[in-house]
Amino acid sequence: MASIPDISRSTSEHDALLPERQHALSYNQFSPLTLLIPLAVVTRLTSTLPATTLLAVIQAAICRLWLTLNGTLPPDGHLSKELCAVPEVDKWRVTVISTLSILDWLGGIVACSAISFISSRLGRKPAILGVVAASILEYTLLVCSQYLPAWLGASTLVASLFLRMFTGPWAVTFIVNVYAVDISSAEERTPNLSVINGWATLGQAISFAIGGLITTKTNDPLIVYYISVAILGMTFIYVSAFLPESFPKEKRDALRRQQLARQNVDASARQSSLNRLISMIAVPFEPLKQLAPTRRADGRRNWRVAFCAIHIIIATLADAVAPIALLLLYVTKYGYNPAQTRTRLMTSNLSTVFTLTWMIPRLIRVLRPIYATQVVPPEDQQDSGDETVVSTSTDLLDVHITIISWVVNAVAFIMAATTSTHVLHLIAATIIGFSSAHSPIFRSLVVSSVNPLKQGEVLAAIEMISGIGVFLSPVVMGSILTATGSKLPMLIFYIHAAIVIAAASLLFLIRDSDRYQKPRRTQD
């Protein structure tokens, strides 16, 4: 793991957490990044652990409801495979799952916006506690739905699935990344984001390893929910007691003043009732304003964040379907069984953990002197004494690692699809894990583009745009896969490679001169 300086845990939300601003260190205290690691592991673990049994729970609820409507539900409530093996139940199941896929996408976008809003007003810690509490309530409602009568159980299940939209891996990854950005100096932000995403992937790997095994051994699809609720309950206590606030009140107040000033300017342009109504409807999409080009000091437009948004929507559009297409190829062409599929997923996840927690932080440490070109700030910004906000090193290292990661990703998927032995498949899965650095490093590039007070908002905007790419991926890439999968099964991977490399090439437009610069000092 990268060498992380210890940071004293503040007892007041007014105290900053950045390492340069901490002077009194205690050997008995851990840095906020160290305290964040258990949260990253646990939230990803509990958000993916029940995934193996969710479809079975939904199918049982649909079957019970259908049998109740038709008056054929057994008196003891036992559901056999024969009773549920009817075309109507299958049709309902497909409809529900398709609807859930759309709602997950919409919920992820709304969740990022809501978490951004709450964390900017109340702080990151209350937002984290809110996500954890919502997850506990979601799983509790789902368990209760299995013991209630048909209609009441179905209603409770719907409520649980509604909460699921706001507590999935997407939401928990977002709030953990925001917290990691808050507690990191500009120089340490990239390795810290890499480390914390690596630990989160470890939680996902653990869930893949034990989720299906627990359900199989106990023959109880609800056991993973009991375990998740227990873990989340302990996590809530842990966060309440030990995790410090990363976005102190002074910063929240400063951000609020900026937002009010902007709203006052916008209000002068909003005279009609229609404009006011449109403004109210647009509130959930407020973070997307961060994607608009800004004006540089010389009057030219700064397109850096807009380029980042275009990059992520194109790359995600191609990449979201690629793992699914690869698994389908392995199952249909090579007859993969569940054990082989699980082994391949575990290999890829463990490779990602190694890459993000160990390899990338050390690679950055080795390469940074080679990229030692210093970015000289304007004369009126020199000697400000605040090195935690703006890095004096070039962003080219982050740009190059991100681009190379995408190229490796493209080549690895082609290798995975064209090789024919299980050993080569595992090697390809390992290389896919090596390409995972693009996600955290790209997000570090994004947040370096804006005022530190608005880093949470711009991260929310990028996650929302990424969500659009995830939604469009089955439509675009899925259509190609359906049309060519039987005759040209490799074509989808070559198209994937061409698209992600084209998207990565957009990052060559990222320039140091376009990243955030502190406001010019005025002279008396």
Short account of what is shown:
It is found in: Membrane. This protein has 524 residues and is an all-alpha fold.
Q: What can you tell me about this protein's structure?
A:
β1 and β2 form a beta hairpin. The protein is 68% helix and 1% strand. The protein folds into two domains: 29-249, Growth Hormone, Chain: A (Up-down Bundle), CATH 1.20.1250.20; 285-374 and 390-514, MFS general substrate transporter like domains (Growth Hormone, Chain: A, Up-down Bundle), CATH 1.20.1250. The longest helix is centred in the first third of the chain and has 36 residues, at 87-122. α4 (87-122) packs antiparallel against α5 (124-145), α5 (124-145) packs antiparallel against α9 and α14 packs parallel to α16. The chain contains 19 helices and two strands. The two termini are 48 Å apart. The protein has a two-stranded antiparallel ribbon with strand order 1-2. The chain has 524 residues and is mostly helical. The chain is globular, with a radius of gyration of 24 Å. InterPro entries: MFS (IPR011701), MFS_trans_sf (IPR036259).
Question: What keywords describe this structure?
Answer:
MFS_trans_sf; 2 domains; membrane; transmembrane; MFS; Major facilitator superfamily (MFS) profile domain-containing protein; two-stranded antiparallel sheet; Growth Hormone, Chain: A; mainly alpha
